[in-house]
Design brief:
Two copies of one chain form a homodimer. In chain A, strands 1-10-12-11-13-16-14-15 form an eight-stranded mixed beta sheet, sandwiched between helices. In chain A, strands 3-2-9-5-6-7-8-4 form an eight-stranded mixed beta sheet. In chain A, helix 1 (2-34) runs antiparallel to helix 13 and helix 4 (133-144) packs parallel to helix 6. By secondary structure, chain A is α/β, with parallel strands linked by helices. Chain A folds into two domains: 29-87 and 252-453, Aminopeptidase (3-Layer(aba) Sandwich); 91-247, 3-Layer(bba) Sandwich (Glucose Oxidase, domain 1), CATH 3.50.30. The first copy, chain A, contains 13 helices and 16 strands. Chain A binds chain B through residues 29-30, 33-34, 157-158, 160, 162, 195-196, 357, 359, 382-384, 386-387, 413, 415-416, 419, 432-435, 438, and chain B through 29-30, 33-34, 157-158, 160, 162, 195-196, 357, 359, 382-384, 386-387, 413, 415-416, 419, 432-435, 438.
């Protein structure tokens, strides 16, 4: 009898525990879908402040705005963390055309982040098309020297996760100029990292690596339609040149900030759980998907906890990192100060894959903890959150090195992400209110469960 | 030893069987994401043909086009099925304004499908706002007579499935005019079935039921922003009237067609598996999401089977139903002829919830078969298809009554669907190529498994 009673008690408390979590998740999703501020915050960030490239005036406005908003939430602390960031400015809008005999066919390009400018009157050269850095190297100096290298390997359409296609393609953008410069090229153009055919060139970081400055060559992205056209023209084997003019310039590093707000843990104030995204964007648009969405979702997690009167056991800290796009200085500075202050991070969650319908989380943790997290899947099922996988979490939380830290990235539906990523159409109307709110609720739910059950 | 050998053999063949299905699904997804025609078919349907309301010239063009395309696929049969459909024409674009004292504030409205016109010079009346038919009935004739009834209950933002919010809201649109007419109202306006605030009025079917014709009153949808504004103005308690002018007209029923293509089954030609969507759309836009997407996905299933040289055991029939939006005559005619010809349908799959990222299927079947289908979940996991639930399949396949039939509806992500549904922005650019193709592949995979393993 006693045994049965004990079992019954255990069973009852199990049900009770589960039901408590079920109720909390329900309250979180309900709040987010009906009362959250994240969409209106994004509206302000995108439409009142706009594009926020590192070191720009509008990035500073973004800092001031988000700090002010966090201050309205009644947190225990809201503060800024100084960080010096690279400042690169595009200057005058780029022009480019295919010079097909005497016909000029304009194509949409944009300088890649960190590119040097062309000469004032632009650069004209023959074009050589390649599909990989390996192919370029095989061609060698003789065939490359004096030419514009055109990297034209498309993102693979057949991967289910669009980020896999990005990873398999982005070396052309990141290392393409350096490799071409080593073979004497005068410039490079790279097919935009975009799964669809359209007229938007997509910028993004590139690196000259350890090249001496005098060897830097200008590098730009061309829209996918432009790349298709250029490739087709090259197949016609007519004498063809390419003209491009870039006016971009690298300035001195500028002072900027990570924006931080926190609720101090009631049981383990020394254990820190970070949530956030990055406040900087590229300069071509307001970066609503990349990563305005992640910032306001991080802020929303904190708002949800406050408004639902949930007092976390551990310290919850929202961090809006500066300069993810072009240097990652904010994430590095955050880790540097964290080490200096002997902080102990147990968990970090970043949203930097867009504000689309949330599908799950990408996790950096050991097998045992992964198994523990997998046990929470039934709690997420009613919200159509189903994908818990091991993988990359987020660029800004990458530097964090606390011994036992678990890291996670929100995993939204990836199909449309590269339609907007780093392009002029990454604007407010690309984000759906419900999808943004569901993402925030999914993050808050995950943070709640980690806070409740720890990471041991 | 023998026992072990047998077990080992069984195990090997189990692995083999599973691996065969895994390979087939991989081939299906791969084909759909790299070689399918569905997106270009949709481009034609949407951009060359356009809106296809029942009985219209463009609906007939849609019939001709899709039949021609099916004829290029080398099917065993392609044919049309005659069906008489209601023909309702919107006429001149509607106008409406709030008459706030002497100020006219224009608001976007559109007549609901089947509405009668207002008098030629329009209709002006006081407005009474309600949030449900029950509330209207409580008000009674005294408070309603001579007024325009304004139904303003929004779609619930807190449901995870947007279709639940639609179901809980659409009674206002479908029955609202009839109920208001019974209490002497002169017209009705209904808040658009849209989860977001914007300026698009959303049309859709409404029914006067058994009202005598002379009692019919004009009825229109107002955009969600318009509804918010009107409601706010009404709260100010000033004398306020509403003006609307509708020029719509009901014509004689017109001859139209269901479009059908089939591959005859190699083992069970008498067992029919149907897949498809509906070819008609509303008239305000080309209906790329509703339901151009479903049509081309159904066609794509057939293309995938043909191009992968998969010879189905059962007869696979793609059906593009006519007139789902306003009468459902195509689905009814299909069932009528099916009965007459003693056809035996074992399975029907409809895609009529948009061309968004596929998430799973909504199933009408018994528990045992539901359990069988659930066993296939691991096969779908690599494609992020995770949601297999019991529920409504599709309007066009609803009439089918074969004894053992299993019915399914493709379940795409629903968050953005009502941003476009029945509105002027349901256009080609609302559909993402990858999402459309993933949906088609998910349907083809499901059809393949049902074809392989039957429904017994």
């Amino acid at each position: 009898m006693k045994k049965i009673a004990l079992f019954s008690l255990m069973f009852t408390s199990l049900i009770h525990a589960q039901s408590k979590d079920e109720q909390m998740l329900k309250a979180i999703y309900n709040f987010s879908l009906t009362q959250s501020q994240c969409y209106s915050w994004l509206d302000d960030l995108s439409n009142k402040i706009g594009a926020r490239p590192s070191g720009s005036l509008s990035a500073e406005k973004g800092v001031t705005y988000t700090k002010q908003q966090l201050e309205t939430l009644g947190l225990d602390k809201v503060y800024l963390q100084e960080v010096m960031v690279p400042k690169w400015v595009r200057g005058e809008k780029e022009t480019a055309y295919i010079l097909d005999n005497k016909t000029k066919i304009t194509v949409p390009i944009c300088a890649l982040g960190g590119s040097v400018a062309t000469p004032k009157n632009g650069l004209t050269a023959e074009v050589i098309e390649v599909h990989s850095i390996a192919e370029l190297k095989q061609l060698g100096t003789e065939k490359v020297k004096g030419k514009i290298v055109f990297y034209n390997r498309p993102m693979e359409p057949y991967n289910i996760e669009a980020f896999d296609s990005y990873s398999n393609c982005v070396d052309q953008r990141f290392y393409g100029a350096k490799e071409a410069a080593l073979l004497g090229a005068t410039g490079t153009i790279v097919r935009s990292m975009n799964l669809r055919l359209d007229d938007f060139p997509h910028t993004g970081a590139q690196s000259y690596g350890d090249l001496p400055k005098e060897k830097y060559i200008p590098t730009a992205a061309i829209s996918t339609n432009g790349a298709e056209l250029l490739s087709q023209k090259l197949k016609e084997n007519k004498p063809l040149k390419f003209y491009m003019k870039l006016s971009c310039q690298q300035y001195e590093d500028a002072l900027s900030y990570n924006v931080i707000g926190e609720i101090i843990g009631s049981e383990h104030p020394e254990k820190i759980m970070v949530v956030g995204g990055h406040l900087d964007s590229w300069d071509l648009a307001d970066g609503s998907q990349d990563d305005g969405a992640g910032c306001v979702q991080g802020m929303e997690v904190i708002e949800i906890f406050k408004k639902l009167n949930y007092r976390p056991k551990n310290t919850i800290r929202v961090v809006l990192f500066m300069n993810e796009e072009f240097g990652g200085k904010g994430g590095k500075k955050y880790e540097e100060l964290s080490k200096k202050n002997n902080e102990n991070h147990i968990f970090a969650l970043e949203s930097d894959s867009g504000g689309f319908s949330p599908r799950g989380f990408s996790l950096e943790c050991d097998d045992a903890y992964f198994a523990k997290i997998s046990n929470w899947k039934p709690l997420f099922e009613p919200y159509l959150i189903h994908s818990f996988v091991k993988g990359h979490s987020g660029s800004d939380i990458q530097p964090l090195t606390s011994v036992k830290i678990v890291k996670a990235g929100l995993k939204p539906d990836s199909n449309r992400y590269f339609d907007y990523h780093h392009a002029a159409n990454d604007k407010f109307d690309a984000v759906n209110k419900r999808e943004l709110e569901l993402g925030a609720a999914t993050m808050a739910s995950f943070m709640y469960l980690i806070d409740q059950y720890g990471i041991d």
